[in-house]
Automatic annotation (TrEMBL):
Superkingdom of the source species: Eukaryota
All copies of domain FBD, residue ranges: 92-164
Name used for this protein in its record: FBD domain
Lineage: Eukaryota, Viridiplantae, Streptophyta, Embryophyta, Tracheophyta
Species name: Arabidopsis suecica
A UniProt-annotated Pfam family: FBD
InterPro entries: FBD, FBL13/AtMIF1-like
Length: 168
């Protein structure tokens, strides 16, 4: 795997293809993406939740976070992230810069809820959180998804939580 220092990176689409990225010594704590403003992360693979935590930690100026599941990524689509190990401390971007969360194909599984609730609870300047709920994939009722997130604590008093049903 090849990963290079990109201090001027402003926008990135990240798709985890292999678990090797989490074992790559150069990415553990040495990379800081100071200029990254927009991250689109595909969470189809097991390792993607850990990568999300690492990138949040290393992107202090992140303003837009798109979390997505690409439908044609094959069998891992049903499995996706296995668990969310929340960071030991709240990443700087959640405290100071994140304004927009867009989650495409939100399934409402425990690991999805854990991440969404963590972001809502800690993103101090979040203006909009848009959740495109996919109730067909994992049989989680849409109303249940809405209630769980709507009732969760939000640090940002101006945050608008928007739910849209994902249509296949």
């Amino acid at each position: 795997m090849y990963l290079m220092n990109m201090p001027n990176l402003r926008e990135a689409y990240v798709d985890v293809v292999s678990s090797d990225i989490l074992q790559y010594d150069g990415f553990d704590d040495g990379y800081v993406f100071n200029q990254l403003k927009h991250l689109n992360l595909c969470v189809c693979k097991e390792e993607s939740s850990n990568l999300l935590g690492q990138i949040l930690k290393d992107s202090p100026n992140l303003r837009i976070l798109d979390i997505s599941v690409v439908k044609d990524h094959g069998t891992d689509e049903r499995n996706g992230m296995v668990s969310w190990n929340q960071p030991n401390f709240v990443p700087e971007c959640l405290l100071s810069s994140l304004q927009t969360l867009l989650w495409s194909r939100y399934f409402g599984r425990q690991q999805d809820r854990d991440i969404a609730v963590y972001i809502l609870k800690n993103a101090c300047h979040l203006k909009t959180a848009t959740i495109l709920a996919d109730t067909d994939e994992h049989d989680v009722p849409n109303l249940q998804m809405i209630k769980e997130l709507a009732l969760s604590l939000r640090t940002s008093v101006i945050c608008q939580l928007v739910f849209v049903e994902y249509l296949n």
